[in-house]
Amino acid sequence: MGRPRTNDDAVKERLVVCATEMLATRPRESVTVRAVAAAAEASTTAVYSLFGGKDGLIGAVRDRAVAGLFQGLSAVETSADPTDPADPGDPLADLYALAVAYRSWGRGHSHLYTVLFGGVQSFDPSGEVGVSDPVRPLLAAIDRALAASVLAGEARSIALSIWGTLHGLVTLELAGALDAATAEAAFRSTIHATLRGWTTPEVFRRLRQAEPAP
What we know:
single chain; mainly alpha; elongated
């Protein structure tokens, strides 16, 4: 009878969870293999056996964050008719829905969000886009908006503008700098303003005319 496996999936999960929390709440240099292993009630050997070391463990945390954010954004349904290529749906509504999903994921996974965008690993929405890159659903929606002459500009520049705005709002909210009512109002008005700023002149005028009088 062989030796029981001790470095199993349960240990792996505990290590990732503990590393995530520690990376989100402590300086990176203080997150050592020994500290993570102790928090997860595992051995340091488990970290090397399962992840190859500290860098591999941090990579696993980031991979989980990337996958989770991608899944959250990919779950947003588009208003475009998939059976009719000529029907763009409502591209601005689709982009706003993606912004809502981004914020919702960040609020629901604050530790992962902090690890992903808190300086532990870089995330460049203007860089090369992989198959499961969280920016892919955003770029796809922007491309539909450009094709429908709703937005004007370069897709990656628009994506970076939207992401930068979103990141600032969500980071402030997670840090507790905004109360709930302020965060909600700021999100709604700022995202709409950012999207409106990239619209074509015709769409911009229409949106302005549709706004209620102050």
